[in-house]
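Batch manifest, entry 17 of 40.
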Amino acid sequence: MNVGYVCPTSDLGIGILLERANSFARTNVLLFRMRGAVEESGVLTFLHKKFDTDISEDDMLEMNEYVASNKESIIKARDLFFDDISKMVYDSVIEYRCKGNKKILKHSTNMYFPKDIFTLSDDEVFVDCGAFSGDTVFEFIRRTRGRFKAIHAFEPSQKHFNLLINNINKLKLHQGNITLLNEGVWSEPGLLSFFEQDLNLGSSHVSTDSNNAATESVSIKVNTLDAVFADIKPTLIKMDIEGSELEALKGAKDILIKHKPKLAICMYHKCEDFVDIPIFLSEVVPEYKLHVRHHACGYLDTVLYASI
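Output type: structure tokens
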């Protein structure tokens, strides 16, 4: 859960309280373990609707311009989705990002591990790209009841990687099955500029724009999933890497073709990702069944799922 908020002054105190609670949950192992069960209960739906991050006017303008120039491509991407629910969700997210009306969004639980799309076995090799502080790793362990083959977690931010190590070290079991990598994933190995955000924000990101001076820039190592997993067979790959998803998928092309792992890929960071990511996956692995689910009542957390 990533609760942001845009609220009137009368709600400001509640909003700050929720933000602080959310930040604490990211660094507390017990709350990591509880979070999925709480979300499934539905008690957080009201809070999501009231406080989830709203889309900005600039982002709405950008999406409207993108839609106006790419109608045929949007229709092509929409036609690739396997089920009517996905097409309905896709339509609602596009409309929301053009008009800003949160009421039209269709919110789903079970982010990254949707029970209606794929199941988890006892032999999963889970690859978490953008592991942040370990929240999805803990959720994966909860979902599998601790029965899995391996976890490989990538986190390029040194600040968040230190937090990830600290959280994983609190586990009494499984540590031998978990590999932590302080690097990013990309279409080719090398070094890239990386813009750090505050510890409690999950929007640190790779950038190829040398003129971007909005935040502190550091140089980080990036690698391809094809190189890292030349001798390992991933069964489930999750990506939430702030707009680098398509480049990372290009660097996993051999894995996708050879092993056809289940995928949970965030597609909300860029307008073009709503088109380019599904089209890329359908071309690389035509057998993939593509689904879309939206896991917030605002701007965040639209995820593309793929499975055989």
